[in-house]
Specification:
This protein is mainly α and about 180 residues long. It is built from six helices and no strands.
Length: about 180
């Protein structure tokens, strides 16, 4: 006789500890994918640096003086990367919990599409609700100081796509695992 996990719902397909772990790991991976896009732009675009995006993240928290010549702002770069990773992991957990509780779809297309929409929605909320809260640094993200708007949308879409793919992989692996009878 099989026992059902106390964290399981809808036919035993939801394991809370595993879902939280997958969300955190998926968010970290998705955040790295997003950061690679922003940092690659900085590395190859005239007048920008590889480190503009992480510096801007920390400048939003600690003030505009944390953004500038990278060699003068190593701490801001490290803290910006850490903050981005932490935010990405929290958003990954939120996405995975939403998917696990609301979407019963099998396959890759639904998580991929919903993940993409989630990523773009995150940018819209950041751009129009969160960033205006700090007038001193909103221009780093709202203008082209770090990167153009289309790139922020693209990077967040890739963030969401990656979340969707990680969730689909987790969901497929969970549902195809043999069960004890």
């Amino acid at each position: 006789m099989a026992t059902q996990d106390s964290t399981a719902t809808h036919a035993g397909s939801f394991n809370l500890p595993r879902t939280l772990t997958v969300g955190a790991v998926g968010g970290g991976v998705a955040g790295m994918m997003m950061a690679m896009i922003e940092m690659a732009y900085g590395a190859f675009a005239d007048g920008h640096t590889l480190w503009d995006a992480p510096m801007a993240i920390w400048a939003f928290v600690a003030g505009r003086d944390q953004f500038g010549v990278p060699s003068d702002h190593v701490g801001a770069i490290i803290l910006g990367m850490g903050g981005h990773l932490a935010n990405s992991m929290m958003l990954g957990v939120a996405f995975t919990l939403l998917m696990a509780t609301l979407v019963k779809s099998q396959g890759v297309m639904a998580p991929l599409a919903l993940g993409t929409m989630f990523g773009v929605a995150v940018w819209v909320v950041m751009r129009y609700l969160v960033l205006p809260l700090n007038d001193g640094t909103a221009d780093l993200f709202a203008g082209a100081t770090v990167s153009p708007q289309w790139l922020w949308y693209l990077a967040h879409a890739v963030f969401g796509m990656t979340l969707g793919l990680v969730y689909a992989r987790h969901h497929t692996a969970t549902n195809s695992a043999p069960t004890a009878a």
